[in-house]
Design goal:
heterodimer, A: about 300 residues, Rossmann fold, five-stranded mixed beta sheet, about 20% strand, globular, B: alpha/beta, 7 helices
């Protein structure tokens, strides 16, 4: 995904003189050709993330469209107040593109893990969040984000599904188990594991690479009484928007994702996927447990008293 | 009196903490406000007692808006205007008074500052006040935004406008400033001027002087009496356009 981001951003810098790129050393080598061609619009401030976002805010105030890029924890967590004040409070906007995701570099340990990034962005107002599930989804999402006027966050990962899905982020039914079936919604690169987990269960599966703004209308059209949310970042990040979308209906929600604890373990991204229960086996255990409860009558209609 | 520190020169002699270190002059009594600002300042003050930091910023603001900045109420949206970014957003009453004196905001906006229907908060909001370039309040944000503004103007071929950012000496405690100071100096961002109003309020002081933090990174620097309008004007126009420039305006500590 990072390569597709570099290619697309390099092209955008050549196509549109409003576009600028702000870096804090991360990926700077990959942008050397673009920096050579556009020295005033490819700005590497060194290992200074507060300045990186502040510069983006200043660029936006002069009418440019900044793309800001670093590792997710340094881009979103370290410079959070700059996102809140130097962009949002100024009425300025930018396109943030991160790499690293929740645990792409698991062997690097906690400092390079960022499961909370989407939750933090979600505290801000009016942002679009894209979580592509395949490298081929990146170019169109990035181009759309840069062409818009509002702020956007693209969360790139080394984890991905076997195939790409286009579209604007509206929920797309990938596996239809029929009317009223439990609906599993997978965000970005967790789709393949989710499909494998419920392959022999009567569960519909829908996909999105755009958790914000959430496709409320699409969810209302597809959801039955039981909804399972699988996200590749903090568990429950989108629970509030799903609950709001279904507030007027009896429903049950199981929200799966990355846990909050610091596991203090290295290993690979695949190890962490398993430890957080996001592999096919872990997801299957969670989903069957949830559906057993549903079947046991949690959602059975209350008996209607005689005479009514 | 004006004290100039060459960018490549040795750091000024160390001074005790909590003291402005290159003090051109002490004022036993603070001089009177610039006369054109007095009615607006008294109107927004509305009988309240302001801290010394409010009063001590008015002179440099007046010199900027009266003699330095190429900006007027009718050019607040002109891409080629000079930019003034108030980073220490708490010293705001004098800012509003100067903006009113120069016609950027109607004088009656000065009434009920911070009230439920007022556009003028205790920290400024750029979306609410014509001529205000940034919303500020949390310290340490203006210089980074100023660096980005200067870079954005340059990238669009706008080489005339100058970007001025006003900070306080205590605000320099925030590490974000030092990211901006180092980068602007290393890249020779010659369209940027920082103004540090130094009232000796940094808790641990700036041994060697506030200006030294800039000059060691390749800025030019001038330290002046923050109430001396001619000295301020000379300092604020003393940049060489090849390096960023800082003016340290030393003012009364208000004690």
């Amino acid at each position: 995904m990072r390569n597709r981001f570099v290619e697309t951003t390099t092209a955008l810098l050549a196509e549109d003189p409003r576009t600028a790129l702000v870096l804090a050393d991360i990926s700077a080598d990959a942008f050397d050709p673009a920096a050579y061609r556009h020295p005033d619009r490819v700005l590497n401030v060194g290992i200074r993330e507060q300045l990186m976002v502040g510069v983006a805010g200043g660029l936006a105030l002069t009418g440019l469209r900044p793309i800001v890029h670093s590792y997710a924890p340094f881009l979103v967590e370290r410079a959070y107040e700059q996102l809140k004040l130097d962009l949002d409070h100024q009425g300025a906007s930018a396109v943030l593109v991160s790499i690293g995701a929740s645990y792409d570099r698991a062997e690097s340990g906690r400092t390079h893990l960022s499961p909370a990034d989407v939750s933090l962005i979600d505290t801000l107002h009016g942002w679009t969040v894209h979580v592509p599930g395949h490298p081929d989804e990146v170019p169109a999402l990035l181009r759309d984000a840069v062409a818009a006027d509002s702020s956007a966050y693209l969360r790139l990962s080394t984890l991905h599904n076997a195939r790409a899905y286009g579209g604007d982020g509206a929920l797309r039914m990938v596996r239809d188990a029929g009317p009223g079936a439990p609906l599993l919604v997978a965000v970005g690169p967790v789709l393949d594991a989710a499909l494998a987990a419920v392959a022999d269960l009567g569960v519909s599966v829908a996909y999105t690479h755009r958790p914000r703004p959430w496709d409320t209308a699409g969810l209302r059209a597809l959801a039955g009484e039981a909804v399972i949310l699988v996200e590749p970042y903090l568990a429950g990040t989108s629970a509030r928007v799903v609950s709001a979308a279904l507030a007027d209906r009896p429903h049950r929600l199981l929200a799966l994702g990355v846990g909050r604890g610091d596991l203090r373990r290295y290993g690979s991204a695949e190890d962490h996927t398993r430890w957080h229960g996001l592999d096919a086996g872990g997801l299957r255990r969670s989903v069957t447990g949830f559906l057993d409860h549903t079947a046991a009558g949690f959602l059975a209609p209350a008996p209607v008293p005689a005479g009514r | 009196m004006t004290t100039t520190t060459a960018s490549a020169g040795p750091a000024p002699t160390a001074a005790p903490p909590r003291e402005p270190t290159a003090t051109p002059r002490r004022h036993p009594t603070v001089p009177p406000l610039p006369a054109p600002v007095v009615p607006q300042y008294e109107r927004i003050r509305a009988g309240r007692e302001f801290g010394a930091n409010v009063r001590s910023t008015v002179d440099v603001l007046w010199v900027l808006y009266d003699r330095v900045l190429r900006i007027a109420p009718e050019t607040v949206d002109d891409p080629g205007r000079d930019r003034f970014l108030l980073s220490k957003g708490h010293a705001v009453a004098g800012y509003y008074a100067v903006l009113a004196a120069k016609g950027f905001v109607p004088a009656d906006w000065l009434d009920d500052q911070g009230g439920p229907d007022s556009r003028l908060g205790d920290h400024p909001d750029r979306t609410l006040v014509p001529g205000v370039e940034i919303g500020s309040g949390s310290l340490g944000h203006g210089l980074g935004l100023g660096v980005g503004t200067a870079l954005g103007l340059r990238a669009q071929g706008l080489l005339t406008p100058r970007v001025h950012v006003l900070l306080g000496d205590a605000e320099l405690d925030e590490g974000s400033n030092h990211e901006a100071i180092a980068y602007a100096g290393a890249t020779g961002l010659g369209s940027l001027t920082a103004i540090v109003v130094d009232n000796g309020s940094a808790t641990h002081g700036w041994t060697g002087g506030a200006a030294a933090r800039f000059t060691v990174n390749g800025w030019t620097a001038t330290t002046v009496d923050g109430y001396d309008h001619d000295a301020l004007h000379t300092a604020l126009t003393g940049h060489d356009n090849h390096r960023p420039h800082v003016v340290v305006a030393v003012v009364d500590q208000g004690e």
